[in-house]
């Protein structure tokens, strides 16, 4: 795109905003994030190529499969953190990790910026799981709904402000729901007190993708190494139900972000993948 064309597009956008109001330029969050994936800066990102290489995947010549693998890696790299340490913001979206259900629950001291109170002081909504907002299970609607708000929702000690947060189960429910929105089937697995996501692709018979959005793991593994399902585990059944619910996915797909938030998210993504393009 030439400089002239870029300036023309920006002037058109400004004119539309002036005539139609701020809501005109709102955009669907997941579709917007997918549009960034289509940019050359992402497609040619060394970081993305390394992720696929480290996973044990070599370009197959099947454009559909190669693109799906690249998109899965991209989505994982945005959502993951690197360590199960309170406040870790390592991934592309910078969504911090926080433990839950511990004797010294750090979520009790997370501050809701709008209400000016800690989550331990705020009761959970009637009918929800958890006595306070600190012990609430952050379902995909809560996790993504918070992330798409215009302004940061929370603060915690050394983190001045952030939009959303979650530990392993909450991240994998959010990931499974996002995969559902873009049409990719997945299963959440569990062992002891940790969960992850598994994806099987038609173009990779005999293999599955092991994706862990807590410890930044994206690995192509033989099906024979796939951990058995823990039949009867009520937690894993609920996690998978939350992520697979079509009504929830439809509501998520309809969530919008304003231009300022979109610009911030794009800057986050392009910076994380090694670019700082202003082509928005």
Helical residues, percent: 40-55%
From the alpha-carbon coordinates, what is the Rg to the nearest angstrom? 19 Å
The counted number of beta strands is 10
Quote the distance from N terminus to C terminus: 11 Å
User: Could you say which structural class the secondary elements and strand pairing correspond to?
Assistant: alpha+beta
Strand content: 5-15%
Query: Mean of residue pLDDT?
Result: 90
Shape, please? globular
The helix-strand sequence is HEHHHHEEHEEHEEEEHHEH
Low-pLDDT runs of 5+ residues are: 12-24, 276-280
Please give the largest β-sheet.
4 strands, antiparallel
Query: So how many helices?
Result: 10
Strand order of the largest sheet: 3-2-4-5
Oligomer: single chain
Structure report:
There is one protein chain. With 280 residues, the chain is an alpha+beta fold. It has a domain at 30-82 and 172-272. 40% of the residues lie in helices and 14% in strands. β7 and β8 (207-212) form a beta hairpin. The N and C termini lie close together (11 Å). 34% of the residues are buried. The model is unreliable at 12-24 and 276-280 (pLDDT under 50).
């Amino acid at each position: 795109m030439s400089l002239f064309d870029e300036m023309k597009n920006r002037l058109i956008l400004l004119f539309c905003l002036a005539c139609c109001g701020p809501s005109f330029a709102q955009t669907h969050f997941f579709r917007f994030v997918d549009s960034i994936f289509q940019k050359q800066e992402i497609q040619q990102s060394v970081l993305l190529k390394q992720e696929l290489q480290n996973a044990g995947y070599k370009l197959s010549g099947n454009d559909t499969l190669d693109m799906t693998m690249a998109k899965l890696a991209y989505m994982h790299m945005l959502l993951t953190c690197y360590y199960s340490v309170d406040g870790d913001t390592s991934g592309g979206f910078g969504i911090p990790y926080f433990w839950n259900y511990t004797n010294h629950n750090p979520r009790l001291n997370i501050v809701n910026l709008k209400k000016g109170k800690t989550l331990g002081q705020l009761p959970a909504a009637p009918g929800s799981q958890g006595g306070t907002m600190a012990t609430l299970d952050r379902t995909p609607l809560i996790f993504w709904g918070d992330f798409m708000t215009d302004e940061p929702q929370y603060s915690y000690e050394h983190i001045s402000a952030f939009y959303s947060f979650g530990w392993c189960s909450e991240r994998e429910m959010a990931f499974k729901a996002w995969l559902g929105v873009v049409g990719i089937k997945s299963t959440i697995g569990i062992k002891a007190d940790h969960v992850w996501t598994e994806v099987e692709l038609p173009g990779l018979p005999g293999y599955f993708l092991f994706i862990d959005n807590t410890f930044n793991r994206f690995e192509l593994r033989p099906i024979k190494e796939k951990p058995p399902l823990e039949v009867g585990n009520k937690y894993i059944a609920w996690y998978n139900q939350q992520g697979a619910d079509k009504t929830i996915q439809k509501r998520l797909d309809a969530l919008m972000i304003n231009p300022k938030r979109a610009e911030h998210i794009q800057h986050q993504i392009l910076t994380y993948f090694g670019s700082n393009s202003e082509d928005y």
